[in-house]
Amino acid sequence: MLDDTIAAIATPLGEGAIGIVRVSGPEAIAIAEKIFVSRTGVDWRRQGSHRLFYGLVVDPDTGQPVDEVLLGVMYAPRTFTREDVVEFNCHGGIVPLRRTLELVLQHGARLAEPGEFTRRAFLNGRLDLAQAESILDIIRAKTDAGLAVAMSLLSGELSSRVRRFQDQLLGILAQVEADIDFPEEDIEVASREDLKISVLALMGDLEELIHQARFGKVFREGLRTVIVGRPNVGKSSLLNALLREKRAIVTEIPGTTRDVIEEVVNIRGIPVRLADTAGLRDTDDIVEKIGVERSRELVKAADLVLVVLDASTGLTSEDRAVLELVDEQKGIILINKSDIGDGEGLARQVADLYPDKPVEVISVKTGYGLSKVEEAIERLVLGGQATASQMPLVSHVRHKQALVRCHEHLQEVLRALSAGENIDLVAIDLRAAWEALGEITGDTVAEDIVDRIFQDFCIGK
Ligand SMILES: Nc1nc2c(c(=O)[nH]1)N(C=O)[C@@H](CNc1ccc(C(=O)N[C@@H](CCC(=O)O)C(=O)O)cc1)CN2
Ligand SMILES: Nc1nc2c(ncn2[C@@H]2O[C@H](COP(=O)(O)OP(=O)(O)OP(=O)(O)O)[C@@H](O)[C@H]2O)c(=O)[nH]1
Ligand SMILES: [Mg+2]
Hints:
The chain is built from 15 helices and 13 strands. It is an alpha/beta fold. Strand 1 (6-9) and strand 2 (18-24) form a beta hairpin.
């Protein structure tokens, strides 16, 4: 399968300044020789790798020029895929790109599957699996911090950490196997204690990484945040204020927002997926009822819930119903409209009723307290543990799960060591721990998991 040549349009379809048709595989150069005509007199075949050449894409059957291009030429094995790669930098329109791709396909390539270029980079050993996954994270990053986490993954920081763990495990395993080989040498009791100490140290390091994963996931996927409250308390006004644009419609009529409005905002480097919802109340209006139902679902799935109350009306029974709804959630209670009501008074009342939740007094209208809201979000996400400048190494659930499995096997190693069980059993769990780590780098991962990872990529990536 790796001996064929793949091609795809690697840029978004639409009108743009430039669009790229990417080709990788053993026929890449031969295809370019058939359809590319240099216009500079330079013999592009006689130049080095990683160069651009100016010319035309020409249909060799008709002699018709298709587009004016820059041809990028990169020779194996020092390329992204470790195969020969050519890239047609076309004018960024659907027709020139499609026509160029068609010609490439007619002359020896087949259409690439989603993520297949990156998959080849992985299969040919240029990237490990975690690095390959980082490429999609780079594309999808929502904030600078999100991008920095992805770039750290691409650079192999997590991978080399994982490999160090694996080396340590192999060291421990070597000791264990020495015990298996020379059981008569009566070193067992002492060495069991030593082994336990080494295993415990490793588990501590794993725990630290696992703990960081919470922040890592937020940087990668965004913090799912829902603004809830009864109608007219200022939820949409809050969304607009945090977004710094008039995105949602705001009126003095309760029940203004009916559909959920979602936007991503950058709050102190944290990508926050903000959803503004329909005001929560018992209602007979069919459309509004559906909206209320949606809000409840969003609250259930949220990482953070911003409950908005209205200082000018005080706490109503509807407010209490909303607060009950989010009682089990991570919530921040916001007392809005403090410019026209007793915000501090209501804040004290609410703090007595819900002592575990942070309460902030704000006025979206005057801007009072909004920076405290941003601070509270930052505190909640980072929990005083990390700052946006200390990048978490683990940002994928998949990676975290592998670390957790490794940790579980080590737990079992400890148990077996303490219980004086057969040293062979200890060795088996140590190997299982080593293999769990290999899923991160892809050394020991199942084919279907690799399939699933690359399915999420775009065509041409
Ligand atoms: N036009 C274009 N832009 C692109 C890419 C691409 O493939 N083509 N990329 C891809 O998605 C990203 C850049 N990543 C790349 C990674 C490695 C190599 C590469 O040729 N690596 C060689 C180094 C060669 C040398 O040292 O001279 C190698 O690793 O062996 C190229 C691009 C983003 N921009
Ligand atoms: N005085 C004052 N008025 C505010 C404040 N925040 C919002 N309002 C006003 O309150 C009214 C309702 O605001 P919205 O943002 O539409 O409220 P909502 O919670 O989204 O309402 P629904 O979508 O109907 O649930 C509007 O007239 C806003 O201008 C504030 O801090 N002070
Ligand atoms: Mg609204």
